[in-house]
Design brief:
Ribosomal Protein L15, Chain: K, domain 2; alpha/beta; Four Helix Bundle (Hemerythrin (Met), subunit A); 2 domains; four-stranded mixed β-sheet; globular
Amino acid sequence: MWRIIDISGEDYKIICSQENFVALKDSEEKLRVHFSDINSIIIHSYSINISGVLVQKLIEYNIPLIICDRAHNPCGMLIQCFKHTEYGNRIQIQINVSKPMLKKAWKQIIEAKITNQYKVLFSLNKKNEAEILKKYSNEVKSGDSTNREASASRVYFQSLFDNFKRDSESNDIINSSLNYAYAVLRSNVARAVVGAGLNPALGIFHSHKHNYFCLVDDLMEPLRPFVDFYIKENYDKIKEHNSLNSETKKILVGIIDKEFDYNGEMLNILNISQRYVMSYINYLNKNIKKILIPYL
């Protein structure tokens, strides 16, 4: 079972020792995990010492290192790049892809995202709201030119939790849990993207000179409802803690071990992401007309 390592608190030193990630505090060993058992690492600290050898090992094992701000919101990520043997060929394909192909890809992604949101609400017996989302998913145009994604999002989040407004800057327990779990999802999709030799900065829809992970943010959209559904399933346990503490985080990182159906197979989030990314590559190569996008 892969582990997500969460380092909270001050004055930690994290190093590499014999192919192991080691966390020290006041020269005392607090944690030792082999790199092959690590999914990702999340750091919430302004006073931490990271060795250069450790950084090299994280890159070698393609382990994302996620940095959080003072509000515990993810604000940066270190990840491997340029190591895939097909990197040169694949970046050329990404650069040369036509605008119409990208717009068709974005249409497929948004249709899938809204359909997954529909399935979440339907499973919660919110059938009236679910039908609205089903209608929106059928109305998505090339490039989502009519912005059905935003319309669906408003209906979806208002229905998913009582008296709730999605706000990534808010520190309430639901928004904080979503931010944290989305960061876990993002790191897994990023790992799949760079592992397949794609440049994560070359997005489908998102484009921003300060965002190196535009493609990751695009591809993860249909997977967000997987996270929402998982949090809703565990809502009572999360609400008991009412803060993003260590117990809440233990619940949230469980998303990486949960298996979902993907094309007839039960797979975890990382394996789904890897196959999904390869399907996107096949789409770019014009081997297939539709990306094999994950559905709930």
